[in-house]
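Course assignment 3, question 2. Fill in each field.
Student: A.L.
Task: Predict the tertiary structure for the chain below.
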Amino acid sequence: MLLSKTNIEQKLSKVRNKQILSEDERMKEVYKILSNVDAELDRIEKNVIKSKGIPNNNFNIDLLESSKIYHIDEIKQICIDYRLRFLDTKYFKGTIPAEALSKIKSLERAHNLEIQGFKIIAPSKLFKLEDKDDPLLFAPIGNGYHYLIHQWGNDLHPLRKLLMWPFKSIVNLAFLVLLMSFATTLLIPDGLFSKSNTNAQFWILFFFMFKCIASVVIFYGFAMGKNFNPAIWNSKYFNS
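Answer field:
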């Protein structure tokens, strides 16, 4: 006679049936556990959304990953290079993913504390600024240091740093305007304004192009209330 194969699920059910708890009691206990988990995640989400902005959290330094600790100067440099903002999460209008909340929950359990004062690095369009790309969620440690908890979203455009270079300073912007004026002047066909081409005529046209392009840039800057990257990286105002 051949022996029948063992059904582990059936064996497990038999062991469960021997337990003292009835089915109703077991379901109540599971429901209670799940309710506590939901309540805990709701509390964490509220802390993230409200972001009280406390200066530090008392993490156990031995449990932190050193590769995820960043100083405010390093954060500032990245924000300036890529024209990003570093603000309290209460200004963030995107969705905080469940994975980020789970990581916060794990950190709180490991460090035995309630994490607060969350901040986010993200493009301006992802904040509710007063008047969606790559958010990074941080928690303050103290003395200017912040701990990276989670990053989500699509990668920033590979040329974003280059595209935002003119907005780092007025010198960079002026250099770009000069370069554009020079290139535009070179595109003007020979003999368009006179039969003979001279250096003096070229530089007169260059100066004219420079004034036109600079006027457009200045008008756009004032009309849109734009400012340079170093002035806006941690500004909560839209017109900056």
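Instructor remarks: The chain is about 50% helix and 10% strand. The first strand starts at residue 69 and ends at 71.
Grade: pending
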